[in-house]
Structure prediction request, 381 residues.
Amino acid sequence: MNGLPQPMSRAFYLCCLLPIFAAEPVATGAERGPAPPPIAPMICSTAQVEYRGALLLAGRAVVQVAVADLWEKPQRRSSLADQAFLGEIVRPVAGQVAACGSGAGAGDYLQVLTESGYRAWAEIASLRPLPSTEAPYRESGPLVRVAVRLGSVYMQPTVTAEKPFLVVPLDVPLRLVRSVDERWREILLPDGRHAFIQAGDVGSVDAAPATGKTPADRTAASQADCVIEHARKYLGTPYLWGGRSTLGVDCSGLVLSSMNACGLMPPRDAGPQHDWDRTTHVARDVRALQTGDLLFFGKRDPAVPATSSPAAPQAAPRAAGSTASSTGLGERITHVGIYIGDGRFIHATTNKSPVVQESLITDPQWTAAWLGTRRPPYSRR
Prediction:
């Protein structure tokens, strides 16, 4: 972003900070007292403070990069909490200030709320203030969506003049301006620039990846098939904690993205996905499974006996729509996958090879970790 702070110059270091370091002799051993406070607060440029202020004043912002990482803490060495994609709207959390180095904000980061209610820290350079008078990007006109694992966006309608300006992951909607010719589509980016993407990389926003049917047209079988076909597009995608795109994805992110593409809106994380009140209980029995069911895994407390085996249904099934855990005390869900039939499920895992892959539920490792099954609210079979 123009106007963001530049690295500290050698001249500034020599004239301003070096005298501070050299002002007092260094104490050793017993002479050393409590650690001193930081030498100075975070240094921010005027332009950076103004940009932070503009984001806070607008009260909402649009993501202007292909994928905006959202962090647990306002620093890059923090764990990743979630991601937001090009054109999504986020809202700064109340109570933050434009000045850097305050307790309520830090330099390059603002704490934001995502459209799904997730709270995390976003880099301000990934956002553009969205005034109340401006329509959200994805509501400003006709859209196409990226229909391949990764869609390349160029500043000119040619692949040879320069490298792609953006690489956008599967299913991200783009604002369509016009069809240039059979090969190229002109698009509008959230920052107001025009760019180009190849027609083969995009498809209709309303069509399902596999069936081509709109959400209203799908039967339960086609909706479950849609989720599975979409999840299979992620095969080989690297595992990334907090990720939910074809650039990198975690287990619950794979479930969320696959279902979002087929008209369903589950929670973000595996535990809440298990307790999602729109799902129904399924016996922990391979024979009871249907394609599209969600399989949940974790570590069982040795003091708590398993309530069933994979070949025997549970004695007391959980009531449909219940949010109470049916897996028993002492059990903690740490992983989720999507059942695809024939004893197999697809999931993003760090096991063996850290990529999206298919596994057998009858594999002893997964059988031992299998805590329960939930059926998403596909249209009634």
About this structure: The chain has six helices and 22 strands. Confidence is low (pLDDT under 50) at residues 1-33, 36-41, 208-214, 307-330.
